[in-house]
Amino acid sequence: MKRLWSISKYAVEYLQYCSSFLDSIWQGITYSIMSASWDPDREGSFLGTDEFSKNLENIRTGLSRSRENARLRDRMNEFSPDELEALERKEAAKEKRQQSFGDKFGDELD
After folding, report:
1. What is the distance between the alpha carbons of residues 84 and 79, in angstroms, rounded to a whole number?
2. Sign (positive/negative) of CA torsion 78, 83, 86, 88?
């Protein structure tokens, strides 16, 4: 079998070193972003472990919400405009029933 390339073992080691170095930089940048406090009113901890878990949970929640929104949009495409309008009226009536007396007439009484 004929060799196409002759690569020194030092070149391979150097490329592996560069790869691991860039990987560690990427991980450090990612951790620094994730461990920062995204809430401007909240002071962050020293290593940011609390913030990391909270930010990770925020990302998971956002992704699940966007999946749910995509499913709802797909379901809404199945309805005609008249059916959508009827659903909106039904939702508005349901919200109005759930309001308290003060919420319904509070502005008018003041």
Report:
1. 6
2. positive
CB burial string 12-47: b at 16+ within 10 A, e below: eeeeeeeeeeeeeeeeeeeeeebbeeeeeeeeeeee
Residue type (1 letter), 85: E
pLDDT digits (tens, 9 = 90+) for 8-26: 888 888 999 999 999 999 9
Instruction: Let me know: does 38 contact 30? Beta carbons within 8 Å.
Output: no
66 three-class SS: helix
- What gap in Å lies between CA 67 and CA 60, rounded to an integer? 11
